[in-house]
Amino acid sequence: MTSLAAVRHTISAFALAALAGTALAAPASAQEELLPVSVVGPDSVNLSLQPESGEPGEPGEPQIELGLRAPGEAVPDDQGVIRPIHNGEYTVTVDASSLAGVAAVDFSRLGDWQGCSVDGLVATCRRSEIYAGQDYNDLGGIRLDVTDESAAGDFGTISVTAAGEGLAFTGHTVDVLVGGPELRMKQLAEPEGFRAGDTFQAPLSFRNQGGLGGKGVVLRVSGTRGLSFASTFGNCWYDPRDPDDLRGWSTALCAFDSEFAAGAAYGLSAPFPIGTAGFALYDSMSYSFSAVPADRVADLLAEGDYQPGTGPELGLVRLPDADPAGYTQYAETDFPTTNTFDLDLTGERLRARKGQTVSVDVGFANHGPAWLALLRSGGEPISFWVDLPPGTTTTTAPEACRPADWEGAEGDYLCNIDTPILEDATRTFTFGLRVDEVIRNATGRAFFAYTMPNEGNPANDAGQIVLNPRGRH
Length: 473
Fold this sequence. Notes:
There is one protein chain. By secondary structure, the chain is mainly β. The protein is built from three helices and 35 strands. It has helices spanning 4-25, 28-33, 297-301, and strands at residues 35-40, 44-47, 64-69, 86-95, 104-106, 117-119, 122-130, 138-145, 155-164, 167-170, 172-178, 183-186, 199-202, 205-208, 214-223, 227-228, 236-239, 250-260, 265-268, 272-276, 283-291, 307-308, 316-319, 327-328, 331-335, 343-346, 349-350, 357-366, 382-387, 392-396, 401-403, 413-417, 426-435, 442-447, 462-467. The longest helix has 22 residues, at 4-25. The N and C termini lie far apart (90 Å).
């Protein structure tokens, strides 16, 4: 079988020759008058021999989404309408002939609502509008599936070309490889007895469930605010989190110019240390191994502000255990799980005459030691209730508090606090109250409706608001 590299080299040579011939044949003036349009889509698809199952009878999602990119950006006109920059019929041809015996091709979602005519493994789509930019030029998707004839190493291409009067199209080619490397990660669990401030010596590993081996692996490890990576390995690069981005991630990339076999599992030559801060609680760590050749690593490093590590190099070692049941596509772990925070609500004690308007402060604080991030829920706010003292009318309320005028409400106001909540956070919620009737020891309160998990001191989860208390205050 011809190697993938040789096939690509041949394709590239033909493509360059074709482009050179086109450039020589077309007059310069004609090129300048034509609207340049590019076909866009993925460069390659690795078609798994072990596809993930979907709903019975439901076709899988397309792996290939195609579109067009034209000069400029699509912007609405004075009437708020986005108008095309080209009107006139053009034809898009999708030729998947070389996938015969390699994979099944489903064109049913190509062309969107307009559809395309299909003849075997060639689809022809006729359209009439092109918009600036890319967002409004979707061509639809192509679904590929393995067949009984498909085998690891089978290779083919999908060629997309287009033509139309007044248009200069640049086509696109999608390489399709069957059974290429597919790396799955060992799922991790928090070590027994782990505490905030400890270092997790993570035994990271992967299994190649693809039909082919390869050479070149990149490990990416990411962690949220409470996690950190020591710059201890010479073949790793480290990009710390922006300290102003509370939901941001620190990332480490490690490159291995190592060969790996199909069906085999590999682990690190030493555990990967992940430090935890004293405030860490349910911080998220994810990691992935990817099949990336050594000459592509520089492209990945250019995506961040990576600094090289200074210690000895980390290696890969083959593991005897390659049971696929222990490996997953997405490896994520939240830890530490046993830390606590201390949420505290406080009220005020005030004296006021009838008709007087007073400001009442409800205080909120987190005394730590942990922060409250709720990272898995996307920063969902937490809420507390406020019952105001009898004999008063609210004149002003904090922006974060709304009147609880619905059935089943547990107080007069429901107040929200955005997360993440830092380990030393404080906040004040000020209500304006008019005293309509002087009632001695008129008492309200601010309170949480329930005790949150990991709350270390529930005793201060409520605070009293007292107007005209008896005795001194």
